[in-house]
Design brief:
Glucose Oxidase, domain 1; single chain; alpha+beta; 14 helices; two-stranded antiparallel sheet; 18-stranded mixed sheet
């Protein structure tokens, strides 16, 4: 359930760039006009990748074999060269687990509670072992589960949760703030609000289990998304320690189940949630015990990133990178007899956009810098393909100037606006602003900063290594229908297609917005590839120091 990037128009396109040297703003290059973006490529590649033949493109399945072969073939036909030392592929070692949980039993209250898998809770484990058990583990409510010393906030202060089960709220304490001021950036989610962080911190604190309370607004998706994403095959990076440093059990509780659990302890979930928003909140032992077991089917197998490159003419050792994830959920919960999560918008469209951009750049010929096209695996499992590339870069981060990541294209029509996610983070916004002005587009702040989209797609894997990332997408102001129609389209996608079998190719899609956006991404990438600039994060940004150190070592 990582990288849930589809707000706005069921579309997202991400832009990235790098660090300091002589110039941080847009270079004084000629405006790059894109060769025609191929509508036929967009339609053909999207339709193929999202067909039932590809079985939802889950990693390490026959669907992957078809997918990566298609991408490599289209890269080669576009005129790219193999991007990994003569190879189209980068192996990504994964471990696949399929967990079968027992019901979660809670004792210690007036009456024992039993929470059923999928309907009341989901449970899984990062630990790679055939079976995992949690027996009579004391339950502690730790508020938002945040330990942020630089913000003077520690929900674990004064409590020892080693071997215990922690119950955690999703998002940040100030997510309901209307503005962007607050201990955790107000309405804009920080990484502390992400479910991935919650489990990471719980493990660091020694918790045996961690369950997150689901609530649709702060999670930004319904329980149906949790169900589809946390059942069936799950993937993680293969590791020598089998992830035994992680909590034994991780999972989610429905809001209804959470209310029952707190009531059994004589507590009120709403009251304690309100208290947890205040600085100085102290964790609350609930006087209850949790028991649950898991059996795991385990398979180790490499998945693959696909990499093509258009070598630079004069500075081939400096790189601009485009990325998109090719994977989706594979076989998922059946709806009306359909059990294939085809992932047409998410992210067959983005992969098709990657191919179309490769064709356009190759047609224009080499730029000064090299341009890399990276299709990554296992985004839906926690950004694993991009994480592996980040940890094992084919092209050094210090020499990577920037890039564009596409996690879903706009297939509902042209808009008058673009939205910037995490506005004010890097100098790349100058490139975006210039391109938007020339195309007559209104650049807006994100309407739902509380959803934390900046931390939910593959650009984040590069940002963590200091590569400045600009995340932008089509807004909601449709040329045909205005904001009301755009918002309705976004809400319809989230409710009725996102991570469901109904995310299927539709011949009636309007590709005008996708082609417009791809032309914008082409221009920004080409401007970067023809310049000698190294845009950086703004002073004080969380990733600035990492990039400064990286670039200093490259001089």
């Amino acid at each position: 359930m990582s990288a849930r990037t589809h707000f706005g128009l069921a579309a997202a396109a991400l832009l990235a760039a790098c660090a300091p040297t002589t110039q941080e703003g847009p270079a004084a290059t000629a405006s790059a006009s894109a060769p025609e973006i191929s509508l036929d490529t967009l339609k053909t590649v999207t339709q193929l990748l999202s067909s039932d033949e590809y079985q939802g493109r889950a990693p390490t399945t026959p669907g992957e074999e078809k997918t990566v072969a298609l991408i490599a073939d289209r890269f080669e036909k576009a005129g790219l060269r193999p991007g990994n030392e003569g190879n189209w592929f980068q192996d990504v070692p994964l471990v696949e687990t399929i967990a079968t949980p027992t019901p979660l039993r809670v004792t210690g209250g007036a009456e024992p509670l039993t929470f059923e898998f999928r309907t009341d809770m989901v449970a899984n484990t990062y630990q790679v072992q055939p079976s995992v058990s949690l027996d009579n583990s004391d339950i502690v409510f730790v508020g938002y589960g945040i330990n942020a010393p630089e913000r003077g906030w520690n929900d674990y202060a004064g409590v020892d949760v080693k071997g215990k089960t922690v119950v955690i709220l999703i998002n940040d304490p100030d997510y309901q703030t209307q503005g962007l001021e607050g201990p955790f950036n107000g309405r804009a989610m920080t990484y502390y609000g992400r479910w991935t962080y919650k489990y990471e911190e719980a493990a660091r604190q020694g918790a045996a289990a961690a369950f997150i309370v689901h609530e649709t607004e702060p999670a930004s998706y319904g329980w149906n998304v949790v169900q589809s994403s946390w059942t069936g095959a799950q993937y993680n990076m293969d590791a020598a320690n089998n992830h035994m440093d992680q909590s034994r059990v991780i999972g989610w509780l429905t809001n209804e189940a959470s209310q029952q659990l707190f009531a059994a302890a004589g507590k009120d979930l709403a009251s304690l949630s309100a208290a947890a928003k205040q600085k100085g909140f102290k964790a609350v032992p609930l006087g209850l015990q949790a028991s649950v077991g898991l059996t795991n089917e385990i398979k180790r197998q490499a998945s693959r990133n696909v990499i093509g490159v258009l070598p630079g003419a004069t500075r081939p050792d400096e790189y601009v990178i485009y990325t998109a994830h090719w994977d989706h959920l594979g076989i998922c919960d059946a709806v009306d007899g359909d059990s294939i999560c085809n992932g047409a918008v998410d992210n067959a469209t983005g992969t098709a956009g990657l191919v179309a951009l490769a064709e356009a750049h190759a047609k224009a010929g080499p730029a000064d810098r090299s341009i890399v096209f990276l299709a990554v695996t296992a985004e839906e499992s926690g950004l694993l393909g991009s994480r592996y590339y980040g940890e094992n870069p084919v092209y050094p981060h210090a020499q990577t100037v920037g890039g564009i990541n596409m996690d879903g294209l706009n297939v509902v029509g042209n808009t008058r606006d673009l939205v910037v996610i995490g506005k004010g983070k890097s100098g790349l916004e100058d490139y975006l602003q210039r391109a938007a002005d020339d195309m007559g587009l209104d650049l807006k702040n994100e309407p739902t900063p509380e959803a934390g989209y900046y931390y939910r797609s593959d650009h984040f894997s590069l940002a963590k290594f200091g590569v400045p990332m600009l995340y932008a997408e089509s807004g909601e102001d449709l040329v045909d229908g205005g904001i009301a129609a755009g918002r309705a389209a976004a809400e319809d996608y989230r409710a009725n297609r996102y991570h469901q079998p109904s995310d299927e190719y539709d011949p009636a899609w309007n590709w005008d917005g996708a082609i417009r956006d791809l032309s914008l991404y082409y221009r920004i990438g080409r401007d970067l590839a023809e310049s000698d600039a190294w845009p950086n994060w703004v002073e004080g940004d969380e990733f600035r120091a990492i990039r400064d150190r990286s670039r200093a070592g490259a001089q």
